[in-house]
Amino acid sequence: MLAIIGGSGLSKLASLEPTGRRVVRTPYGEPSTALTMGRVRGRDLMFIARHGYGHTIAPHKINYRANIWALKDQGATEVISVASVGGIRRGFGPGALVVPDQIIDYTCGRSSTFFEGLDGQVTHVDFTEPYSQPLRARILAAAQACGEVLADGGVYAATQGPRLETAAEINRLERDGADLVGMTGMPEAALAREAGLAYAAINVVANHAAGRGDSEHAIVLEAIEAVLEDAMGRVRRIIEALASPSFRS
Ligand code: HPA
């Protein structure tokens, strides 16, 4: 079953006909919120708001392990992460939608694995391609089918937050090869891989990253809400198209 993890600006899926809520207990503590089970275009789907329903959980406080564990426990086999980001690459301005293909992790101090080695086992997972290519391809095809522009590929830099970056930090991320910057992509993607879930992301560019474009001297947070509202409408349409029979896995 498909699961959607909604980020800032997507705390619920308007097109989801809810069939129930599941409060899931996990060995890792509480997920961000109860899971919403439901149907989109007749397809069963589950949804979780990454920051909680009232957007109360900061990126570094999210219990990523509990969220992924809960989705898997309730039958998810594939996960689409929707997350807002700052745009670094020219062309990734506010309102752009991107399906990233790579990740660089700059986070620290987050519980980032299910394989703690407590049982004396050392477990490594392959993470060369951090996102599921088949799921990425389906998202891109669904967007094309409903006429939404979605950029194919980009390097996502995961920063610790909750503060935004300095202009010099963004310059460094760009030198490292990053195109987008956000605070929640890791360890979520790695945990999904460890859990055996196919995982891909739709990144919504909320603002130019620090020091870029109209964020040259400051990121104007008040402008972000309107950008996200419009862009999340487009994300919803892509998810609806993906749920239609022609794009089912
Ligand atoms: N930096 C980090 N995370 C973000 C940004 C940003 O500029 N915009 C939205 N999420």
Commentary on this structure:
The structure is a single chain. The chain is α/β, with parallel strands linked by helices. The chain has one domain (2-247): 3-Layer(aba) Sandwich (Rossmann fold), CATH 3.40.50.1580. Helix content is 25%, strand content 24%. The protein has helices spanning 64-73, 133-145, 167-176, 188-194, 221-243; strands at residues 2-6, 17-22, 35-40, 43-49, 78-87, 97-99, 102-105, 151-152, 155-158, 180-182, 198-208. Strands 1, 2, 3, 4, 5, 6, 7, 8, 9, 10 and 11 form an eleven-stranded mixed β-sheet that branches. Helix 3 links the parallel strand 9 and strand 10 (180-182). The protein is globular and about 45 Å long. The model has no long low-confidence stretch (mean pLDDT 95). Hypoxanthine binds at residues 84-86, 159, 164-165, 181-183, 206-207, 209, 219. Residues 84-86, 159, 164-165, 181-183, 206-207, 209, 219 line the site of hypoxanthine.
